[in-house]
Amino acid sequence: MTKQSQKGGDNSNNLQCRDLTIINNEGTTPAEVREIAKAVFVENFYTLAGNAPTTAMHRSEEITENFLQKLQQENPEGLAMAQDPDFQYGLFTVQKEYARHGDKDLGELLIDILVERSKHDKRNLLQIVLNEALEVAPKLTQEQMAALSIAAFIRYIIPKFKDADIVDFDLGAQLDNYIRPFVDHLSKDPMNYNHLVYSGCVTNYSISESFLIQGPLHKNCCGLFFNGLRIKEMGDVEGIQTKYPSLFMPCPWGEYGDEEQVAAMNWDHLQKLMDDLDISILEKKIVGELFSNSRMDINEYRGKCEIIRPYMAKVFEFLDGSYMGYMRVTSVGIAIAHANIKRHVGEFADLSNWINKAS
């Protein structure tokens, strides 16, 4: 357009431009989220004295930037949630708590919870739980979060081992992954348990509902703790081993170094192996009795865990000597434990799997 003319009536305002660019912004950019976050914080945070306002603003900008980086890595579609009032409230909660404390570990935990919250745009159980977790997490100490994480490992991760290939399974590596990061923060102080109950992360314990580690570990992974067998001295069993060698493997706990064991992680795993091999009823009975009679008792395999990883002695002592060994974790406690474990091990099981299986 090289020639322009314009007319207007009385009291009108006429605007004119040579080039017009129309931007159709269907999404929300990181820069826009950054501005929204700053505005939300400034409008809602309390007026402080001295140098506190500068410190608070610096921390709010730091946590916002870290959140944006994590969000773009894990759920870039979640940027659009910045327009949602409920999500803005959650974002402000993260800013507010980090501005108050400046605790790096707490900041990382809150970011993980908020990123998870960005995946839920409809009001459902997960959204409500995550909103509550943002409010509750700042009220917990490292000791209390460590206890929740250990309980989550027992309740939700150990059962997943039941389907693992026992031949290649490395229990020590799993303990290092899910237990070791929290061992140094375990505390038997009963006030920690009482505060977890008060905060809504756990319910009052019941000995009849024990989550002691030996329960789930023995139920799901008893094949890891067998006494070794001299199969060559067992006629009927040696014949079965010759026909079905995949049913047996070297036993790591054998006294002489050449003992063997049934190659099944647990009883259900053994039944599936035998069904797949289509062995006779009599052979199933022989192998089943061998499996049952070779398992170590609780004290034996606790001792073996401590041989594999000496720090497990502290874990067993913690569980035996406090209410923590019997606590039932609530949905909010699960969400906090999930985020805390994720900080140490990276991406793993989806939170919805844990919440939906909680009882």
Structure, described:
The model is unreliable at 11-26 (pLDDT under 50). The protein has 17 helices and 4 strands. 33% of the residues are buried. Helix content is 56%, strand content 3%. Helix 5 crosses helix 16. The N and C termini lie far apart (70 Å). The strands form 2 sheets. It has a two-stranded antiparallel sheet. A two-stranded antiparallel sheet has the order 2-3. The radius of gyration is 29 Å and the shape is elongated. The protein has 3 domains: 30-138; 142-220 and 300-357, no CATH class; 226-295, no CATH class. The protein has helices spanning 30-44, 52-74, 85-101, 104-117, 125-136, 142-157, 171-178, 180-183, 190-198, 214-221, 235-243, 267-277, 281-294, 298-308, 312-320, 331-345, 351-357; strands at residues 202-203, 248-250, 260-262, 328-329. The protein has 359 residues and is mainly alpha-helical.
H/E element sequence: HHHHHHHHHEHHEEHHHHEHH
The tally of structural domains comes to 3
- Compute the number of helices: 17
Q: What characterizes the major β-sheet?
A: 2 strands, antiparallel
Give the helix/strand layout.
Elements: H1 30-44, H2 52-74, H3 85-101, H4 104-117, H5 125-136, H6 142-157, H7 171-178, H8 180-183, H9 190-198, E1 202-203, H10 214-221, H11 235-243, E2 248-250, E3 260-262, H12 267-277, H13 281-294, H14 298-308, H15 312-320, E4 328-329, H16 331-345, H17 351-357
Antiparallel strand pairs: 1-4, 2-3
